[in-house]
Each structure stands twice: as C-alpha cells, then as structure tokens.
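Narrative of accomplishments. A recurring question from our advisory board has been how the design workflow behaves on a single, concrete structure rather than in aggregate. To address it, we present the structure tokens for one chain from the evaluation set, followed by the sequence designed for it. No filtering or post-editing was applied between the two.
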C-alpha cells in the first residue's frame, strides 16, 4: 500500500512480512522467507535465511556469536556457550574399543573395573574390552539384556538382567576377575516394574498393580548401591525396588508424586541426612523428590524444591511450565546439580540441601523452538576438575543430531569444553552411558549404533599453553604446562620423544617439568603423561622446531593438540 505521498508502506503482518520500500516491497523482511514472505526462518534467531529456499546463513562473528548447523542449532567448531562466543577447550577422543553384535544395540550399561583392567558394556550380549589397551576381548550372554549393574565386592559383580519376553528383571551375581566368563553364580528374586506389587508413597499403604496406567516399556533409570548390602533400582514409572543383596525387600510406588522419572542419585554426605533424590516431571512440570533413607513406608518425602530456581534465575522458569523435567541429577557433596529441560533448551541448576540460599542456575542451551527435543542421555562428575560432563543430543521433526558432550564448571555452571560425536552416513553416534576412570583421567562413553557397540574414551583434561616457547637443548630449563583437569595422584612425567623427566603437580591447571639435555633432533616431540599401573596417559603433544641460525642452541615449542599414547 502507499501513503499519502505515494511512498510504499510494506506489509508486515501474518499475511506476509515485506521490506525495502524503494523496490516496491519486493523483499522479505529479515527472518522470513517464501513467495509471500510468511514463513519464519528456521534459524532459531542465530542467522538469516534465503528468501526463496529458507536455507540458513548462520551468524559468525565475535559480537553476534559463531553458530553452525542447518538450523544454526549449535556452536561452530571451536566455540561454546549459550551465545557461542567463548572459545571451546576441546574434549578429545582416544581410540575406541568396538565390535559387531548380532542383535540391535541399545545398551545403557557401562562398567569400569580398574582392578581387573576391564571395560564392560552392551546389553545383550555384553562386550568385554581391556581397559588399558582398548582391545576387544569377547562377547558374553547372560540370558537376557543387562540394563544395569555394579561392583559389589572384590570377587563379584551384580547385574540387573531383563527377560526379553516378559520384561521381568532379575538381579544376578557373576564372578569378578581379569578373565570373566560371566557364568551366573547366584540369582535373586524376579520383579516386574510394570505389574509387580508396590507400596504407594503419597497415598494409603496398599499393594496394587500399575498395568492400567504404566507405559508399555518401563526403563530402569538408575541402579544405586546404598551400602554394602542394600541397593535400589529406580524405574521410569515411579517404582523403586529395594534389595538386600539378591533378596527383594519391598517395592515402592511414587507415581502419585512424580509421573515420569528420568534421573536419580543418592546424597551420602556427612553434612546432610542420607537421602535418595528422584528427578523427572509431574503434569508437564519439573519435579524432584528427596526421600529419607533407609527407605520405608514412613520415609519422609520432600518435593518443595521447585520454588528455589526462580529465586536463583527468574528468567529460566518465569512460569512453572517453562521448566519441563529434571533430566539428570548429580550430587556434589550435599549439593544436587540438576540438568533441566526447558521449553527453549537445557538449563543447569545447583543448590545445597543444608543451605538453599546458595541456589543458582545457568542456561546451557537456549533460544530453541518449543518443538525441539533434547535428550540428556548421561552425565558424570569430575571431582578433580570440579566439573560435570553432560551428554545431550538435539532433534526436531526433520533433524537428529549426534551427541555432544559438554563440560560444565560446578562453580559458574557455564560450559567451557565440548566434543561433538560423529554422523556416519545416516547413523548418528548417540552416547548412552558415561563412566570415568580418574586414575588415568579418561571418560568412557558407550555408543551403540545399529549392530555395533563402541566404547569411546575421552580425555578429561586439556592443555592450553606451554611456556617458555624456547628451551635450551642443553637441558635444565623448567617448562610450565597450563591447562585444566590435571590430577594430583600418581607420578607425573614429561616425555620428550622417549626421554622422560619427572613433572611437579602445581594445581589442576598447571604442571612443571625440567627439560632434559639432548639435540634438537632428539627433542622432536614432547607430551605430558601420567603413568599408572597399566598405562601412560598423554596430556598433550608439542612440536619442537629448530631455528635456522646455525649457532642457536634453543628449540621452539609449538602446541599442536592433545593425544593419547
């Protein structure tokens, strides 16, 4: 339309969003496309789109952020944070242990047995790998799908085995040694989390079945060892089964308080009473319960934690329904660290049970359409690095991304490191379990893909700087290596292409070592390593470049990357 002076006034409403009056409003306004400029760009506000095709051109500047992906749904490689402006301390992968399996792989079980140098993962069958070498040792079948497990003694491993046909769960014990056969030594009671009896928590005490309102598939959320003899299986439908060794003591039903359970953890800190934390949702709104232990029909149940988060960050949950579910719970001392799904992304929150005034929260991922789907598939704490590793994959109705593992500071709750897994043809690498080995500073990820299962090691440390950059080849100079996630245990060494030098632990962010004597040809490579009983883990690799002047005895150090040897 025209104004009284004959100048174009471009339409900007639900019928179309046009701009450029000088060209008679023939162009679409930013963030819209189509013949009638009535379609919103799918770029999540992180870029512009082609007015004809809707294809995104993502923002890529220090001021606006560095984004990537077909919908600008993630940070460009090398950047991290909610606004994709922070430089990413890359989490690097090591060589995996992989094998082909005869049934469709969907395991969430992973066990690290450092005493016997074993990695155990898979569902049915189990796959066994050598921890130190990542060498595949073999497959084991225990008569069902292993959905959870734990080390219960120096000689035994406890497994939760699900019957493929009846969905009954049975706890069995197998021998624990360096060459396990996984022959069942003893078997406990059978419990069906969908139809077995349970004591209702939050209503009158009675036995009942949940067949009428339980989802067809009930998954185990967490198996938690409470003490030397007691353990609990926490299920997605609100059921908790309490075991004494292999004997089922009692089952409890919390579905009146929480309708979908996605996470669980135990608080076992001297400053707080022993408690079981259960996270998920009720009626589309996030919910967390704290249940006093020991678990009985009269255990105190608290659920007044929702009010803490708006006080910490009123913009994260401006209304109750803005925070959908507690997807994961980690416990730092007596302080729960929650990964919360919101209507626009993923948030992190932390508060302490003995001092709720310290509650704080942060947005890990934000600005996404409400139709976006985020799956938080695994998370673990790193006690040395004061951080959490959280595995998340993103999906829409037309797009599925592989998992990205984020490293989040427990102090600021901000992410400062990540690694994006791979897309192999049409198959995405989705991480289903994480387990750390703090002795070697490796984080192991289970990645089932169709008929293959891989256990992928990730480095839990990073190197950001080495100085001085010049070192005398006659030796004696102190070399400082800076980064994050270094551990104060074991013997630290610097390896100069086979010539080692003891290193001194200064802090989780710094180690020092003395450069040995040798020619510049001999000192062609350096890595910082942490030898253990079975393996030397490399912290970093650097290249030494000799200057061209003939009489110069100094060699230049240049940082390349992080590598395992």
């Amino acid at each position: 339309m025209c104004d009284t002076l004959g100048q174009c006034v471009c339409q900007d409403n639900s019928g179309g969003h046009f701009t450029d009056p000088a060209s008679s409003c023939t162009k679409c306004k930013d963030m819209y496309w189509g013949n009638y400029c009535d379609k919103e760009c799918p770029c999540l506000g992180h870029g512009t789109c082609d007015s004809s095709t809707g294809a995104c051109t993502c923002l890529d500047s220090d001021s606006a952020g560095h984004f990537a992906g077909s919908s600008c749904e993630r940070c460009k490689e090398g950047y991290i944070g909610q606004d994709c402006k922070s430089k990413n301390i890359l989490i690097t992968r090591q060589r995996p242990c992989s094998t082909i399996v005869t049934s469709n792989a969907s395991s969430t079980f992973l066990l690290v047995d450092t005493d016997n140098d074993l990695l155990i993962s898979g569902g049915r069958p189990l796959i066994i790998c050598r921890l130190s070498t990542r060498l595949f040792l073999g497959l084991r079948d225990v008569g069902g799908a292993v959905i959870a497990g734990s080390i219960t003694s120096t000689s035994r491993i406890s497994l939760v085995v699900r019957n493929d046909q009846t969905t009954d769960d049975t706890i069995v014990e197998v021998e624990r040694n360096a060459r396990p056969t996984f022959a069942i030594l003893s078997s406990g009671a059978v419990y069906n989390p969908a139809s077995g009896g349970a004591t209702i928590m939050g209503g009158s005490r009675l036995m009942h079945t949940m067949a009428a309102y339980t989802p067809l598939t009930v998954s185990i959320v967490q198996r938690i060892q409470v003490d030397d003899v007691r353990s609990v299986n926490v299920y997605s439908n609100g059921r908790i089964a309490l075991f004494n060794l292999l004997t089922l003591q009692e089952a409890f039903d919390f579905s009146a308080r929480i309708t979908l359970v996605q996470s669980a953890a135990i608080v076992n800190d001297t400053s707080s009473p022993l408690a079981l934390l259960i996270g998920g949702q009720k009626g589309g709104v996030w919910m967390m319960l704290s249940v006093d232990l020991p678990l009985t029909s009269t255990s105190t149940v608290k659920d007044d934690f929702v009010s803490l988060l708006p006080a910490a960050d009123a913009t994260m949950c401006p209304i109750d329904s803005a925070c959908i579910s507690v997807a994961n719970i980690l416990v730092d001392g007596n302080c729960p660290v929650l990964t919360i799904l919101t209507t626009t992304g993923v948030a992190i929150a932390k508060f302490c049970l003995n001092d709720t005034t310290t509650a704080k929260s942060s947005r890990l991922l934000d600005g996404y359409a409400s139709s976006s789907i985020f799956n938080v598939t695994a998370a673990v704490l790193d006690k040395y690095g004061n951080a959490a590793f959280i595995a998340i994959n993103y999906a829409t109705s037309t797009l599925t991304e592989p998992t990205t593992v984020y490293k989040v500071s427990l102090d600021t709750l901000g992410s400062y490191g990540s690694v994006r897994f791979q897309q192999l043809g049409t198959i995405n690498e989705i991480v289903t379990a994480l387990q750390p080995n703090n002795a070697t500073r490796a984080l192991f990820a289970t990645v089932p893909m169709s008929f293959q299962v891989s256990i992928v090691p990730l480095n839990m440390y990073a190197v950001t700087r080495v100085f001085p950059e010049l070192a005398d080849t006659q030796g004696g100079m102190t070399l400082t290596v800076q980064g994050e996630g270094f551990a104060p245990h074991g013997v630290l060494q610097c390896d100069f292409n086979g010539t080692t030098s003891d290193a001194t632990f200064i802090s989780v962010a710094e180690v020092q070592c003395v450069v040995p004597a040798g020619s510049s040809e001999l000192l062609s490579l350096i890595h910082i390593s942490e030898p253990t009983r079975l393996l030397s883990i490399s912290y970093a690799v650097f290249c030494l470049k000799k200057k061209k002047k003939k009489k110069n005895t100094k060699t230049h150090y240049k940082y390349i990357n992080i590598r395992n040897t």
